[in-house]
Design a protein that fits this description.
The chain is of the alpha+beta class and 127 residues long. It is built from 3 helices and 5 strands. The longest helix has 28 residues. The chain is rod-shaped, with a radius of gyration of 23 Å.
Length: 127
């Protein structure tokens, strides 16, 4: 009887440890999502900041905004293509000084992930 009680107690402790472990590593304490999502979102934010800074440098040199292709062609961006980390980048250019770059999830496994954007004020927004 004592042995079965010890085994049952050990099983209960193991189950509690597994539940705590699973809760800790499936979601961040602030509810931001699993670690892979957080890593990719931080990477996309960094890419958006890089592209926006490149856009500002382009404007300073050419007195007009550039498309993503023009930025690539002139060597202003650190990556090529419109897709990165399962996100598609698009740029909206309005005149010589206004732009908005948006990164939206395009990978079907990333549905429900946030859409991120940045504008000429260098302010990131998340939807």
């Amino acid at each position: 009887m004592r042995t079965s009680g010890s085994i049952l107690g050990l099983v209960i402790v193991v189950v509690i440890i597994l539940l705590v472990y699973r809760a800790q590593f499936s979601r961040n304490p602030d509810g931001a999502g699993p670690p892979k999502q957080q890593i990719d979102v931080v990477g996309i934010k960094t890419d958006l900041l890089s592209v926006a800074q490149s856009e500002r440098l382009y404007v300073a040199r050419h007195a007009s905004s550039a498309t993503r292709v023009e930025l690539e062609k002139d060597g202003f961006t650190s990556f090529s293509g419109s897709t990165r980390r399962g996100y598609t980048f698009t740029a909206e250019i309005d005149g010589a000084r206004r732009f908005k770059i948006t990164a939206a999830p395009s990978d079907p496994s990333k549905s429900g992930w946030p859409t991120l954007s940045i504008d000429e004020t260098m302010q990131l927004s998340q939807q």
